[in-house]
């Protein structure tokens, strides 16, 4: 990543209109994974919410994991200050260059929610997450699904898929009003291959709903949630092998 690209992206995420909040359904799915992890743990866990935005999931994680250490991390100061105002423990850091201000093998759980699709270099980022996780540590990741049920229909009609973007200035060719800054999009198969290639194992995947699906279509979105390959959002629990 060049210094110029990094600066431009940081400026984008400092804008008040850029979405940085956690959507409820996928956040709940990740927190459900976290509850399972903490229930099986006998000691204090270090949980890092990397790319925490305004701290929505960090707050949910802290509430779901009392007695464990939860840290929110982001590279954009505006949402980080919002998270700090919620009484959360936060620090500035990024999984991209120069990396997280965390020692190797020092974290038990990394939450990486709706971040990977925004990255210029997801390869370096996932290696950085692997570095900070202890052997046996957990990665909880969510990202939009390029092959979501509605995107299959959009492509069949010759429309730009939802979640994809061709401009950082405005939306073109797809529904929606807000530019989110998506640079990478995954299908379920691609995401699995990607994580396994970078040293993760024991993948478990659950689908999640997309909050911007129009009201009349939400029952259908909930139905497709049970078929992760076609669900709107992919949520994954993966482990770093011992």
Summarize the structure.
This protein is of the alpha/beta class and 242 residues long. It contains 8 helices and 7 strands.
- Uncertain regions spanning at least 5 consecutive residues: 1-6
Beta-strand residue fraction: 15-25%
Count of helix runs: 8
The average pLDDT is 92
Percent of residues in helices: 25-40%
Shape: globular
Q: What value does the Rg take, in angstroms? A: 17 Å
**Total DSSP E strands:** 7
Query: Strand-and-helix sequence, N→C?
Result: HHEHEHEEHEHHEHE
- Oligomer type: single chain
User: What is the strand arrangement across the widest sheet?
Assistant: 3-2-1-4-5-7-6
Distance between the termini: 31 Å
Derived from helix and strand composition plus strand pairing, the structural class reads alpha/beta
Task: Provide structural commentary.
This protein is α/β, with parallel strands linked by helices. The chain has helices spanning 3-14, 24-39, 56-64, 77-85, 122-132, 149-156, 188-197, 218-224, and strands at residues 46-50, 69-74, 90-92, 107-113, 133-144, 201-208, 233-239. It has eight helices and seven strands. It has a seven-stranded mixed β-sheet, with helices on both faces. The two termini are 31 Å apart. The relative contact order is 0.15.
């Amino acid at each position: 990543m060049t210094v110029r690209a990094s600066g431009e992206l940081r400026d984008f995420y400092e804008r008040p209109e850029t979405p940085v909040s956690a959507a409820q359904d996928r956040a709940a799915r990740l927190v459900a994974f976290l509850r399972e992890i903490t229930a099986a743990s006998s000691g204090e866990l270090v949980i890092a919410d990397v790319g925490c935005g305004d701290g929505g999931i960090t707050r949910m994680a802290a509430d779901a994991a009392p007695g464990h250490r939860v840290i929110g991390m982001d590279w954009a100061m505006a949402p980080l200050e919002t998270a700090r105002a919620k009484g959360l423990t936060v620090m500035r850091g990024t999984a991209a260059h120069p990396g997280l201000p965390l020692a190797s093998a020092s974290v038990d759980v990394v939450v990486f929610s709706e971040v990977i699709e925004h990255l210029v270099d997801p390869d370096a980022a996932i290696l950085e997450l692997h570095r900070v996780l202890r052997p046996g540590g957990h990665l909880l990741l969510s990202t939009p699904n390029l092959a979501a049920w509605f995107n299959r229909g959009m492509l069949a009609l010759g429309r730009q898929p939802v979640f994809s973007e061709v401009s950082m200035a405005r939306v073109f060719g797809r529904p929606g009003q807000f530019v989110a800054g998506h640079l990478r999009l995954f299908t379920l198969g691609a995401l699995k291959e990607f994580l396994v290639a970078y040293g993760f194992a024991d993948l478990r995947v659950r689908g999640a709903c997309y909050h911007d699906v129009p009201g009349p279509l939400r029952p259908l979105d909930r139905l497709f949630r049970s078929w992760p390959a076609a669900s709107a959002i992919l949520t994954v629990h993966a482990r770093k092998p011992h």
